[in-house]
Amino acid sequence: MIEIKKDTYWVGAIDWELRNFHGYSTPTGSTYNAYLIVDEKPTLIDTVKDYGFEEMASRIKAIIDPLKIQYIISNHTEMDHSGSIEKMLQLCPNAEIVCSPNGEKGLKRHFKKDWKFKVVNTGDELKIGSRTLKFFLMPMVHWPDSMATYSTDDEILFPNDAFGQHHASAERYAAEVGEDIVFEAAAKYYANIVMPYGAQVLKVLEALKTLKLEMICPSHGLIWKKEENIKQILTLYKKWASYESDKRAVIIYDTMWHSTEKIAFELSELLDKENIPVVRFNLQNADYSDAITEVMRSKVVLLGSAILNNRILPSMGGFLTYLKGLKPKNRFALSFGSYGWSKVGFKDLEEGLKEAGMQLIGDGSYMQFVPDESEIEGLKSTVSKIKELISG
Ligand SMILES: [Fe+2]
Ligand SMILES: [Fe+2]
Fold first, then answer.
1. Which of 198, 297, 301, 309 registers the highest number of CB atoms within 10 A of its CB?
2. What is the tally of structural domains in the chain?
3. Is 220 designated active site?
4. Does 22 qualify as catalytic in the annotation?
5. What's the pLDDT score for residue 242?
6. Is 167 an active-site residue?
7. Claim to verify: residue 353 and residue 382 sit in the same structural domain
8. Same domain for 95 and 52
9. Per-residue pLDDT, 128
């Protein structure tokens, strides 16, 4: 039983087994955080993934008879949070489902059931006894239905996926786990889940300024409780939502006969000599979700591929699809690679980078079959240009 504040409990499920969340690697697993507020009208805030239901239910049963639950707040329709609503309603059939207008539509599409819905909008309040809950719609952070619930008396924000991290641990608070681990997990989460919605995140941050926050309780990972941690995560969200980056570079590539790899290594070494921090990913063994986290941090993104059948390699094609969806703004990009007899395939790379919202640094560095010394020498001027852009 984990009481986070008097009569407010964490009743979620820990997914120790999870290693992949729709393509996002989760080396420690994740948690689905549900919260129970015991007041005159006991209220459950969010549920858990379908297979975590028994764990959540047993935590609830250790606190109250689930039949007493009057409200199930569904802050977000996605099934990692709403997947247990149907089973939960079997334990508390009279409970009303509190959600946003888009939440109602989404839940009906998923479950094909006409439950008792209580639809709320921004500013609406719900008195559950001695406590009042207030709702804030957060459209596109990160689904149209997303909203946050604020417990006004306890000053606790339940923002669902916002401020979350895919991290499984025995601890429940960020400060207990080690801040480096939690902030890294929060960065990866933002990059992979929230990054396209910077404008919407900034609106949410503006709305949050009016609230006192004793705790931020996201739907994944650790709770932000320490005052300094709350400030830090809000500051980071402002930075990420504004598409700010650090003075660093990331190289992401795939190679066929080591030529593109050679260019990647040379670029890496030259950047290193210029004291520009650089991180390198080979898509043969790196996963997209880690690479994209570095893209979020880096002002310059270098993408390289060999050409196969007049096209870039499939791994790079997949990565570009992912990048185009996440659209990291305000970044410079260089394309590079080795080709056999036609450079036409590099168009895919250049167009993909432009579509992802990046500004190309001149012509790409393309070399036929095996790079020669003069071509490698030519990379020096490219790196000088990168240095100027990074310092500018
Ligand atoms: Fe979600
Ligand atoms: Fe989620």
1. 301
2. 2
3. yes
4. yes
5. 98
6. no
7. yes
8. yes
9. 98
Catalytic member of 55, 96, 161, 294: 161
Check if the beta carbon of residue 364 is closer than 8 Å to that of residue 253: no
Q: Given this model, what pLDDT does residue 285 score?
A: 96
Say how many Å lie between the CA of residue 144 and the centre of ligand 1: 10
Domain check: are 338 and 205 in the same one?
no
Tell me: do 50 and 158 sit in the same domain: yes
In this model, does residue 1 exceed pLDDT 80? no
81 belongs to the catalytic site: no
pLDDT in tens, 284-340: 999 999 999 999 999 999 999 999 999 999 999 999 999 999 999 999 999 999 999
Q: What is the mean pLDDT of the chain?
A: 97
**Catalytic residue at 269?**
no
Of 110, 196, 98, the C-alpha closest to 147 is 98
Question: Quick one: which ligand is closest to 138's CA?
Answer: 1
Do 189 and 317 lie in one domain? The reply is no
Q: Are residues 120 and 158 in the same domain?
A: yes
Catalytic residue among 32, 35, 189, 253, which?
189
Domain end, chosen from 241, 261, 276, is at: 241
The yes-or-no answer on residue 78 being catalytic is: yes
Nearest to 324 by CA among 294, 297, 348: 348
Ligand nearest 106 Cα, by number?
1
Residue 231 pLDDT greater than 80, yes or no: yes
Looking at the CA of 81, name the nearest ligand. Answer: 2
Please indicate whether residue 110 is annotated as part of the active site: no
Domain extent at residue 226: 2-241
